[in-house]
């Protein structure tokens, strides 16, 4: 897809934390800069992998402001702003716009289950109208986590009502048929479809999707960028094979603690193991299992991700 705002490889970035569970903005900004220098076209911050819903409203503002102030370009950030509260979603979206972000990723209101399409349309209509435009909204389709899916009918209604504002979707369902249906129905109107899974990157690009926003891109983005640039041929196929393998490796243990373990070992920075409950760090031999699986997948070592890089 041409002219996609976040077209390409986007990491669903981990959020660095201090021992007291507060955001470690220096380390986080350094990680974001490393990702952008090592294969990422953009970054999905404060999403599922970034533990957005473990942070409070003011903390989420502090995190975005903090990394932008430390030199991470706001134009390459897609913050998660979706909350159960309408007013929180609106205010976080306005805040992202004020920081210079071009788009935000918006969960549906996830506390009340089985809302109607009419109810979701009313919710997103309020978000758009209260935000006042000037920033693109990306729908976050992750029914396993939110229990609130986006139907094709709802997406079509939103696109018709708010052309150019409802800009795309991140589909983390793992259901490629659903991604393909969204591409077939809406890509002609400039609707950007991003896979939340690395194993679909080459396929979704070939069929008119915009790219990916994935957790494993914290470690495999350089291979994703090869796929994005080459698309087809032996080099692209080999890189896609690494993406497939790293996806399996990343899910060999609990995803977020496992990725934190990989980054901690790669940087020599123990703080990356800090995680907010109810998530817990890996224990026992799980850390070695995560490392061995990622190494076997071909993603390690992570060049340039040493202590010096993490501290800068």
UniProtKB/TrEMBL annotation:
Keywords: Lyase. GO terms for molecular function: 4-hydroxy-tetrahydrodipicolinate synthase activity. InterPro entries: Aldolase_TIM, DapA-like. Pyruvate binds at residues 49, 213. The active site is at 140 (proton donor/acceptor), 170 (schiff-base intermediate with substrate). SMART domains: DHDPS (SM01130). Belongs to the DapA family. PANTHER family: BLR3884 PROTEIN, DIHYDRODIPICOLINATE SYNTHASE. This is 4-hydroxy-tetrahydrodipicolinate synthase. It comes from Falsiroseomonas stagni DSM 19981.
């Amino acid at each position: 897809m041409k002219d996609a705002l976040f077209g390409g490889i986007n990491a669903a970035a981990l959020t660095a934390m201090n021992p007291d569970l507060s955001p470690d903005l220096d380390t986080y900004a350094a990680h974001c800069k490393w990702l952008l220098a090592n294969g990422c076209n953009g970054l999905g911050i404060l999403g599922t992998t970034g533990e957005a819903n473990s942070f409070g409203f003011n903390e989420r503002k502090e995190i975005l402001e903090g990394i932008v102030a430390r030199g991470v370009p706001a134009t390459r950030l897609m913050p998660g702003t979706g909350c159960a509260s309408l007013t929180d979603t609106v205010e976080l979206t306005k805040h992202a716009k004020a920081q210079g972000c071009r788009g935000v990723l918006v969960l549906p209101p996830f506390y009340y289950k089985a809302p109607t399409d009419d109810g979701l349309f009313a919710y997103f209509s309020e978000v758009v109208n209260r935000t006042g435009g000037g920033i693109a909204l990306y729908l976050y389709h992750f029914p396993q986590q939110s229990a609130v899916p986006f139907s094709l009918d709802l997406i079509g209604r939103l696109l018709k009502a708010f052309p150019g504002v409802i800009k795309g979707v991140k589909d983390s369902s793992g259901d490629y048929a659903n991604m393909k249906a969204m591409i077939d129905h809406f890509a002609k109107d400039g609707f950007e479809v991003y896979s939340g899974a690395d194993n679909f990157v080459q396929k979704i690009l070939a069929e008119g999707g915009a790219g990916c926003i994935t957790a494993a891109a914290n470690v495999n983005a350089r291979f994703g960028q090869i796929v994005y640039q080459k698309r087809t041929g032996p080099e692209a196929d080999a890189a896609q094979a690494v993406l497939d393998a790293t996806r399996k490796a990343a899910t060999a243990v609990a995803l977020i603690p496992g990725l934190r373990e990989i980054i901690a070992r790669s940087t020599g920075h123990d703080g990356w193991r800090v995680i907010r409950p109810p998530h817990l760090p890996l224990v026992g031999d799980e850390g070695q299992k995560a490392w061995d699986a990622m190494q076997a997948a071909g993603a390690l070592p992570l060049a340039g991700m040493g202590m010096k890089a993490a501290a800068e």
